[in-house]
Design goal:
The protein is mainly α and about 450 residues long. The protein has 3 domains: about 10-220; about 230-290, PGBD-like superfamily/PGBD (Muramoyl-pentapeptide Carboxypeptidase, domain 1, Orthogonal Bundle), CATH 1.10.101.10; about 325-440, no CATH class. The chain contains 17 helices and 5 strands. The protein has helices at about 10-15, 50-55, 70-85, 85-110, 120-130, 135-150, 160-170, 175, 185-205, 210-220, 230-240, 260-275, 285-310, 325-340, 345-360, 400-405, 410-445; strands at about 35-40, 45, 370-375, 380-385, 395-400. Strands 3-4-5 form a 3-stranded antiparallel beta sheet. Strands 1-2 form a two-stranded antiparallel sheet. α1 (about 10-15) packs across α5 (about 120-130) and α4 packs across α5.
Length: about 450
């Protein structure tokens, strides 16, 4: 049961947008794609929300002939905040009317009735609407699909399921969602991860996180960097060591709980592998992707263990495998891609090629002609070009998640290949039937008389 005295709609967002500074907040705009921002929910000067708010505000005359983003506008904003006790409530009403309420209908289309959900989901929707506005439903849908599959049923998901999946997805895609604010990405990662913990706490307990709890969540989500020490560093070092990420000289990291140059080098090695900026600092996204690799490795170990109890499997990299030629062609494409990014191909590259071949067969692709990474390097796409087609509209394509595929062994992918080939054969049958019918029809057409 939510303590209504401790919470009002938008509470979580207001903490992260402006904190204790409240409705009079004016940001510097440094490194922010949205420029200088104002108020409790940081209305953007460049995106136009600050001007939109002022135009319909009861305080519009206080900003007459002033332009958002200018020093004069910032001074006027501070004066109104000091003079008018209702300024914060007016901003809140604006966000509810223009950002939050319109999203309810959008979310109903994906099975989420915001009014029927608890305060944690409502606060998550509010926070998402403040940042993404009209894209809110698509960002929430993205997170639920990534966690629960394309055909998820929102009615079967708890409030905790929803807020955790959406916040994790925001973290995974932070670089592309905020590509215009690159220098602020470390702070955005920390904010998203902290908000994830706070909203999960809210969903479970029904109470918004206290100031002390919020500080603890922020500390837990902040980047680990050279000079740090403690159990969190030991856990990081253990993952790096077990996953094979070493110092520049090839030596393994020692899990001693002290973040020194060796740990920094191993973190940089991991970051280069997964396409993150090689800062050497282990922020929230770096640690999330490390956990992904650890889970994928554990799954692979379990799959290999199970495979060893069954009859031997012919691997895709074995010349006797019926799809070995396709694997070799795809592996060559992956190796070329590696070198293009300045990365030396290794076993993870071969694992990636094997997973892509299996996924391609399952999707009905006869071959992989081209490959490309998604903008955020989270997925590898494989494309089959249609013979004679000049327009990419006719291409077939599919993709695999990079981290998961790199940590799926060739043996594990080979175990999945027979089922993928059955799917491929089923998809080929209609086209074969159409081709045969076309041949029959052509054979029945009488030869035309020669023309001159």
């Amino acid at each position: 049961m939510t303590d209504q005295k401790a919470w009002q709609l938008g509470h979580t967002s207001s903490i992260f947008e402006s904190g204790s500074a409240g409705p009079g907040t004016v940001s510097s705009g440094a490194g922010d794609h949205g420029g200088v921002s104002y108020g409790t929910y940081q209305l953007s000067s460049k995106a136009g929300t600050a001007a939109e708010y002022v135009a319909q505000s009861r305080y519009a005359d206080r900003f007459k002939d002033l332009t958002p983003g200018t020093p004069e506008f910032g001074v006027a904003w501070g004066r109104v905040a000091a003079d008018e006790p209702g300024f914060g409530g007016d901003q809140h009403d604006f966000i509810k009317r223009t950002h939050y309420d319109p999203r309810k209908g959008d979310l109903l289309s994906i099975g989420i009735d915001v009014n029927a959900r608890g305060a944690a989901v409502q606060d998550m929707v509010w926070s998402t609407a403040v940042q993404y506005r009209g894209l809110t439903a698509s960002k929430i849908d993205r997170g639920l699909k990534e966690r629960f599959g394309e055909s998820y049923d929102a009615s079967k998901l708890s409030d905790q399921d929803i807020v955790d999946a959406v916040q994790e997805s925001k973290l995974r895609h932070v670089a592309t969602d905020f590509r215009g604010s690159a220098q602020n990405l470390p702070g955005l990662e920390t904010r998203i991860a902290t908000e994830r913990l706070a909203l999960a706490h809210f969903a479970i307990s029904g109470m918004p996180a206290s100031s002390a709890e919020m500080n603890a969540y922020w500390h837990a989500s902040a980047p680990l960097a050279q000079g740090a020490s403690g159990p969190g560093v030991t856990e990081l070092q253990t993952r790096l060591r077990d996953l094979g990420y070493h110092r520049n000289d090839g030596a393994a990291v020692v899990a001693d709980g002290s973040y020194g140059p060796s740990t920094r080098e191993a973190v940089q090695s991991f970051q280069r592998t997964v396409g993150l900026p090689a800062s050497g600092n282990a922020g929230a996204l770096t640690q999330l992707l490390l956990k992904d690799q650890e889970q994928a490795r554990n799954n692979a170990i379990e799959a290999v263990s199970q495979a060893n109890t069954r009859s031997p499997v012919c691997r895709l990299d074995d010349s006797a495998h019926p799809d070995n030629a396709s694997f070799l062609r795809t592996r060559a494409l992956v190796h070329d891609l590696d070198r293009g990014y300045g990365r030396e191909p290794d076993q993870r590259s071969d694992n990636l090629a094997a997973s892509l071949i299996v996924r391609a067969r399952d999707a009905g692709l006869a071959r992989v002609d081209k490959i490309a990474l998604s903008d955020d390097c989270s997925r590898l796409w494989g494309v089959e070009r249609m013979p004679g087609a000049r327009d990419a509209l006719f291409d077939k394509c599919t993709s695999v998640p990079v981290i998961e595929a790199m940590n799926t062994t060739i043996l594990q992918a080979s175990l999945q290949w027979p089922e993928a080939m059955r799917s491929f054969e089923q998809q080929q049958q209609p086209s074969r039937a159409q081709s045969q019918q076309h041949d029959i029809q052509q054979a029945q057409v009488p030869n035309s008389a020669p023309t001159r």
